C-alpha cells in the first residue's frame, strides 16, 4: 500500500514539473504569436508598396512570376525576424516591444530595398509590366534574390550590439543604404564578367540568366552581412567587399574551366538557357562566400 501511494505521489510530482516546464515556455509562445502577426503585417506592407493586387495575382491570375518574387520577399522577412529574436531577454514586455519595433523597421527597409533594387539593378525595363503582364519568371527570380539578399543584410545590421535606440536606428539606416549601394556595384561588376547582356536576357524571360544573377545577389547578401556583424569600419567593409567580389569572379572562372570545360558557362546561360547550370553557378558563388568566411573570420 505504501509503495503504491509513493508511486502515485511520484507521478503527480513528475506531472507538476512537466506543467511548470510548459509554463516556462509561455514567453516563447507569445513571441511566436507576435512573429506570426508581423508576417501578416509584412504582407499588408508589401500590398501597399506594390502597384498590383497581390492576392489576385497569386490565386486568380495564377501568376507564377509574382509568386516567386513574393516567396523571395517572405524569405527575406523570415530572415529579418529570426535576427530580431536574437539577444538577451530582459522581460517579456521588453522583448515584445523590441521584436515589434525592429520587426517593423526591418520589414519597411526590405520593401525600400525592393524599390531601390528595381530602380538600380533592373532599371532598363518596367518590372511591374514584366511581372504582371508578361509573367516573366526570369525577372521574378532576380527580384526574389534581391529580397532574400537584402533580408540577410538587414538581419546582420539589426543583430549588432545596441548603442541606444536613436543611434541604433540611425546606423541601421546608414549601413542599409551603404549595402544597397554595394549591391548595385556588384551588379555592374557581374555585367562586366559575363559575356552577355543580362538585362536583355532577363527581359526576354531567360530563366537561366535570372537564376544566375538572383543567386549571385543572395551570395553578395551573405558576403556583405559578414563585415556588418563584425565592425562599423567602412574601410573593413569595402575591403571585404572587394576581396569577396574578386573571389566570386574567380570561382566563376574556375567553375567554367574545371566543372564544365567542354562548354562555356556564358553560352550555356545565354544561348542554351540552361537553368540547371545557372543553379550550379549560384551554388558555387554561395560556396565561395562560406569558404571565405571560414578562412578569414
Give an overview in words.
With 297 residues, this protein is an all-alpha fold. The chain has one domain (31-296). It has 13 helices and no strands. It has helices spanning 2-24, 26-49, 54-60, 64-84, 92-120, 127-133, 137-158, 165-193, 198-203, 207-230, 234-259, 265-270, 275-296. The longest helix is centred in the middle third of the chain and has 29 residues, at 92-120. The chain is globular. The termini are far apart. Residues 16-23 have low confidence and may be disordered.
Radius of gyration: 23 Å
Overall mean confidence score, pLDDT: 87
The helix content is: over 70%
How many separate domains? 1
How many strand segments?
A: 0
Q: Quaternary arrangement of the chains shown?
A: single chain
Quickly count the helices: 13
Distance between the first and last residues' Cα: 64 Å
Strand content: under 5%
Globally, the shape reads globular
Low-pLDDT runs of 5+ residues are 16-23
Secondary-structure element order, N to C:
HHHHHHHHHHHHH
